[in-house]
Input
Amino acid sequence: MRQDFNHHGGVAIIRAKDFAPQESTRAVPRVGVVANPRSHRNSGGSRPTELPEAIVFKREPASRNELVSVLTQFVNEGVDLIVIDGGDGTVRDVLSVAHMVYRGHLPRVAVIPSGKTNALALDLGLPAHWSLGDAIRAHVENRIADREPVHVHWNNNALPDQLGFIFGLGVFSRATLLAQRVHRKGMFNNIAVALTVAMALLKSLVGGPRNSWRRGDMARVSRNGVEIFAERVYLMLASTLRNMPVGLRPFGRIRDGLKFLTIKAPPRALFRNVLPVLKGQESPQLEADGYIRRDVDKVYLSLDRGFILDGEQFPGGNLIVSRGRPIQFVVPA
Output
């Protein structure tokens, strides 16, 4: 977890006369809230909300160790629903630790989209005003949608496994630094994504092959013990989301599963190909120019440089990137 989390604990029993539980849920659901008070929309504290009857455990862990303790408490308390109040980075942190604590068998999860970027919330169709009360009611009414995360594992367990939804390297890493500058100027979500993409493309289109934006990163890809790719890549992007921000469709048609887009470096005919790629168009010419789309369940990567997972940089090395076990998220009607 980021060190800017504050620690706060508390248990609340909240009652409402109009609560009508479904037979498939506990009469009074037990809800564990992990909140990041520094998230963009929280501004120092979780937003107040009118709740149905529930037992709510709210925590604001300040470190990964505290997060492990919090989620272990949720296990011991028999929490039915984990609510993550934060942006994509907070979601990644909580799901990654929960995967370890719950040994891969997580309870239902809700997301309160309060970060600078909320790609998962967009994919789930969560409105900006989605609240804790909305999430609890959705849980009680069994309104759920499955999403499979991108599961990153370092060989020899060099680092703890990470679960996220958007994995990228090459120009994606450089664009993430740009996005941080865009956020500092007060632009967030789709506006920030659109501006970042435009700026990254502009920087990629100017200059020659030695332009750092075009040069790319070295990536070695293997499956079933056989190396199938070893080249510099301008971009490698992977996601299990169905819908990407700003309506972008880098993987082509909308579908489930772990999807990859790899663009060889330096990118060929970038000016001609960029719009067809972003719009999801498919043609033999794109692959001939080194714009490769693939669906996989598991791939072995060897990276000299780091990669980005849901907005944060992680070190490279020998990795297994796979389609994670489905997680049940609560969603609007």
Observations:
- The radius of gyration is 21 Å.
- The chain has two domains: 9-147, 166-309.
- DSSP finds nine helices and 18 strands in the chain.
- The longest strand covers residues 226-239.
